[in-house]
Amino acid sequence: MYTFENYVTGNANNLAFSAAKAVAEKPGNVYNPLFLYGNVGLGKTHLMQAIGNSIMKNFPDKVVVYLPVVKLIDEIVMALRKNKIDSLIKKFAEIDVLMIDDAQFLANKDRTQEIFHNIFNEFHMQKKQIILSSDRPPKELTHIEPRLKSRFALGIVVDLKAPDYETRLAILEAKMEQKNEYIDTEVLSIIAEKIKNNVRELEGALNLLLTKKTLLGTDLTVEDANECLETLGYGQVNQQDFSATAIQESNTKGVSSYSALVDRVAEYYTITVADLKSDSRKKEIVVARQLLMILAKQHFKWTFEKIGDFFGGKNHASVIYAVNTIEKKIKLDQNIRHDYNVFVDWLE
């Protein structure tokens, strides 16, 4: 069962967690709507379900409904087909807390957007709580009506980032406690070090380890962890001491060339150099690419043209925009600022 108590927090999700708890304590009165966004597997659905479970426990008279957006689309399409939109609107009128998961899939669904816009307005006027999740913030949603995107941002928009190493290890240890199981911290550390951007995959790796432990009937080793990573497509982690001190030492080893920096940054974000040179708009790839661009300018004194050529032939204007954008992000986002400082340390 998804609850606030079994949700592990860290720098990457503290704000989202606090906002979710505030909504659960006063549904409809604070942060309405609550818009959660982040990449797949970072805990958006967990937080939404935790809000719903908390409200149902503390406000038993309230009707709470969780809907993946594809289910919402299906219901609206069915109502349109059967000419029962009025009945559908009445059905939603009985709901006090509406949670819509994966709002980005409303894209290009014009009639659904129109009807959901009306439902949204009714909820908001009556101070009924709306919670939405997406893989990107409202302003970056494509093929969704501007009036709907503006309403998504009426309350609070918070993002969930990839957890840092300490939080990933804490998640694994918390799951172990919940399952009343034990795996040596050194083994868990290898999983936490390698799987950086998806909590769901982190838990999947743990489940694979526990299955292996049950089948073997023995304690797990570093080799078992590496085999697990290979099975999941992550490759092996070199056998070493994965204590916090060792990881810090690893993170501060210098690099002497730009190509070496690119390789290290790709490894840091668990992406490929090809991803960095592609046109991908995935958040972690964009951030990594922009950080590398600003470092190329600041520390290697590359021209904008040379930077653009390195990253797949991007034009001069695109590189200038990327550098200006990441400069602002470094000032405003503590996680990006942390990563930037790590990379600068590698160069000094």
Give a verbal description of the structure:
The protein is α/β, with parallel strands linked by helices and about 350 residues long. It folds into 3 domains: about 15-160, P-loop containing nucleotide triphosphate hydrolases (Rossmann fold), CATH 3.40.50; about 165-245, Helicase, Ruva Protein, domain 3, CATH 1.10.8.60; about 250-345, DnaA protein, C-terminal DNA-binding domain (Chromosomal Replication Initiator Protein Dnaa, Chain: A), CATH 1.10.1750. It has 17 helices and 5 strands. It has helices at about 15-25, 45-60, 70-80, 85-95, 110-125, 145-150, 165-180, 185-195, 200-215, 220-230, 245-250, 260-270, 275, 285-300, 305-310, 315-330, 335-345; strands spanning about 35-40, 65-70, 95-100, 130-135, 155-160. The protein has a 5-stranded parallel β-sheet, with helices on both faces. The model is unreliable at about 240-255 (pLDDT under 50).
